[in-house]
């Protein structure tokens, strides 16, 4: 799950890094007012979860409030990386002396956090991959000051700059560990003309399997600091459903937050990306039609896993609700069931009779089938 730039920068600032002054706006009038309040040349940056926004025309600069208004009008509503621009970050411009690259990510090969640093930051960092320094971190000890310093060895940086970079790397690691991130990246991490190291951009990706550990983060950032969230998230709240839109293509319907998180973990484990968090436990089965409508409302969804495990809740009642929703909405994507617990024999029979398919014996089988179907076209679903 990718945070937007302004959401990531708020977390970076809370962790102790310097970020430019800025305001999030949703219309040209607000962009004009924000520029006037900042009183300086500004960058208007499209808030979409995709990279290369500058090269794609998603960032404009303005030297006056009127110019900012016109720039905002040209950016809002356009599509970048498959996402319509609905928000802009109006941010003070910085006079840059040097650009660095810094990131901390999960290293699947080393099974540890990996810290990357380069003095060749900026939009073309991929072309300077050979200049990137790497440091594997023992998760038990974390990133130490000595470890951060080792990334700067031999670069002949002035001590005041080196000290700020070390502090920035340590703060990034604290944030990475504290929010169970998959990636915390700053590019560029800039040295300004005034000698300050400032995060001019941010990319933060959260581990979907750890979202249950961060209720405050979900409420404050993933639905937006103004409480709006995406259109689908707003619809979910209006319906009383716990729906969060993620960045994958595997839809998930499960009963209870724990089972839903377990299903998301399984999708991630087998190399897929979940498209949503949506639990349909308790009396939510009575809202199966709008719940399925939320999942199908995400155009990225290419397959669906329905995972029910009942103790007090009866799986046959939940299955009946979902089957009714499927019959009414007639989805064209393949659907894969796994059903266990109270009422499972009747629930499995209902799926067979009404859809003509058999649920899988295990969640892992259903998840793997959904991932395979999402990667192909026209796969037969269950």
From TrEMBL:
Keyword GTP-binding among record annotations = no
Question: Which PROSITE patterns does the entry link to?
Answer: ATP_GRASP, SUCCINYL_COA_LIG_3
Superkingdom of the source species: Bacteria
InterPro entries, alphabetized: ATP-grasp, ATP-grasp_succ-CoA_synth-type, ATP_grasp_subdomain_1, Succ-CoA_synthase_bsu_CS, SUCC_ACL_C, Succ_CoA_ligase-like_bsu, Succinyl-CoA_synth-like
| TM ranges | none
Molecular-function GO terms, alphabetical: ligase activity
Q: What is this protein called?
A: ADP-forming succinate--CoA ligase subunit beta
